[in-house]
């Protein structure tokens, strides 16, 4: 389920995990159980191919960015041999019914839709979860590779807040960019100062999240570090 937490300046963010109370001294069984895949690379209904991101919904359905199969699949709880394709799987081109190496996926409960980081197409698409949806709509990017505020360059990670503002790890532009719902271009909130190791720079940021105070954390992949940016 979604957890909405209050922040300073009336900001609220959605954290995408199940809310559970885990004791500080908890331990886990050391042998994992496969819940999806583990049948070799392939396009079969019991296979994935270099999966990248995932989302777990309220019913413990695992939604997977099946990257090299160019699709989003869902795996029902305790049914590891019967996936359902819910977006893409129509080749790796740029039509609205296609995905190209998706790397992250979120569920927007307000609109009952997927938010997909369509990495290879340099865009973010929204795809209805309702049965029969055949294609997505572009909500960010899809304007070719470049540094303009209408463009993304091979994005990797996403975050969506309760105001449905989208935050994107715009990896090859070395920045985090914010897209407010309904606008035509984004706003750079950190980075965008070229690739580098300075405190105001990234080198291929790939994931992001926020703490309960609204501070931003970014996985700065090629700099081998995690950066925190404090909210003002």
Automatic annotation (TrEMBL):
This is NHL repeat containing protein. Keywords: Glycoprotein, Repeat, Signal. The keyword Signal applies. It comes from Rotaria socialis. Residues 1-26 form the signal peptide. CDD domains: NHL. InterPro entries: 6-blade_b-propeller_TolB-like, NHL_repeat. The keyword Signal applies. Pfam families: NHL. NHL repeats lie at residues 196-232.
């Amino acid at each position: 389920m979604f957890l909405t937490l209050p922040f300073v300046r009336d900001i609220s963010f959605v954290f995408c995990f199940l809310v559970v109370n885990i004791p500080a001294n908890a331990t886990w069984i050391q042998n994992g159980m496969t819940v999806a895949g583990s049948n070799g690379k392939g396009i079969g209904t019991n296979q994935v191919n270099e999966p990248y991101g995932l989302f777990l919904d309220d019913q413990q359905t695992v939604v997977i960015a099946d990257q090299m199969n160019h699709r989003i699949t869902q795996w029902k709880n305790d049914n590891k041999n019967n996936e359902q394709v819910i977006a893409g799987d129509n080749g790796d081109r740029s039509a609205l019914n296609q995905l190209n190496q998706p790397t992250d996926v979120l569920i927007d409960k307000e609109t009952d839709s997927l938010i997909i980081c369509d990495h290879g197409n340099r865009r973010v698409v929204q795809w209805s979860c309702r049965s029969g949806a055949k294609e997505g709509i572009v909500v960010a990017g899809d304007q070719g590779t470049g540094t303009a505020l209408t463009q993304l360059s091979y994005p990797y990670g996403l975050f969506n807040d309760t105001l449905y503002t989208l935050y994107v790890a715009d990896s090859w532009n070395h920045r985090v960019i914010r897209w407010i719902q309904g606008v035509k271009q984004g706003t750079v909130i950190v980075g965008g100062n070229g690739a580098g190791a300075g405190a105001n720079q990234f080198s291929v940021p790939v994931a992001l999240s926020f703490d309960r105070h609204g501070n931003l954390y970014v996985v700065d992949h090629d700099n081998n570090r995690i950066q925190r940016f404090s909210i003002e």
